[in-house]
Amino acid sequence: MSKVIETWTQWLKNSRFSYMTEEQKNQTINWLMLVRDKILENAKLQEDDVLIDIGTGTGLLAFEAYNKLKESGKVIFSDSAQDCLNECKKIAQDCGINNNVEFINTDVTNLGLENDSVDVIVMRSVLVHVLDKLTSIRELHRILKPGGRISFFEPIIKSNTKYYELINPLNFPNYEKLKEVEYKIMSNPSDPLTNFDSKTLKENLIQAGFKNISIDVNIEKSTYPVSASMIEPWFNTSSGGGAQSLKQRFMNYLEEQIVNQYIKDLETELDGKTITLESLSAYVYAEK
Ligand SMILES: C[S@@+](CC[C@H](N)C(=O)[O-])C[C@H]1O[C@@H](n2cnc3c(N)ncnc32)[C@H](O)[C@@H]1O
Known about the structure:
Layout: H1 8-13, H2 22-42, E1 50-54, H3 60-69, E2 74-79, H4 82-94, E3 101-105, E4 118-124, H5 133-143, E5 144-155, H6 175-186, H7 198-208, E6 211-225, H8 231-236, H9 246-251, H10 256-270, E7 274-287
Parallel strand pairs: 1-2, 1-4, 2-3, 4-5
Antiparallel strand pairs: 5-7, 6-7
Helix pairs in contact: 2-3, 5-7
The protein binds S-adenosylmethionine (SAM).
């Protein structure tokens, strides 16, 4: 039987919350609203703007941009996943949104739009899923009108707290190996999740011809008590879009049995402890 790959819509609506308590889920949703508002504020929307939300997913940015533009201009919902566009169309229909919107199935590496055709590009957590960031950023530059603005947010996963930083090396006989593997996973140049940081994003924007670039790097710290039951889902939940789970990425370097043992040992090590995790992200703004 072939494995059914979950759709982006399934991930956005369900899977990403699957290991969270109701409280954590609500916190995440509130955080998403804050990120959405900051991206749109940075985009400095003006009446009659033609705006494209690339990798719109379930329309987090695009629907709010539509509210802000008050039916002036146009909002283009674009995604390479048709299931996301279907979901956005359904929401639009339910909300009676018919005018000033367009839905296009297209890939950020080859958008197929005319040169100089949009005033504003917004995105959240899209380039993190795309291997070739420079080609994508050149494409964004190509479709923007001269003077147009781009505002987006990306998690900088490679700079996040690593598991090996949370544990006592003395409790893990193969600590050095585990550390080496996690380090490799988190700086893998062939993995879109980890092949970039704020510095390379800036270099790519400059190479593509953007100006007035500003990158605001955020470090968010979350401190919370861990229970053993949280560890396995951390390792088994995919980052979406068919990306390998952390367990699968460990298994690219270590036998499954060793990875399973590591997960078990982490459960013992972290159960009942309060940990602080740092997550880095970047708000990027630039003009053509
Ligand atoms: C993490 S989701 C973010 C969705 C939405 N922007 C949000 O903030 O809720 C990533 C989205 O990027 C889309 N995506 C992934 N690779 C893409 C590509 N190469 N071109 C266009 N969209 C892509 C996925 O289909 C998915 O909807």
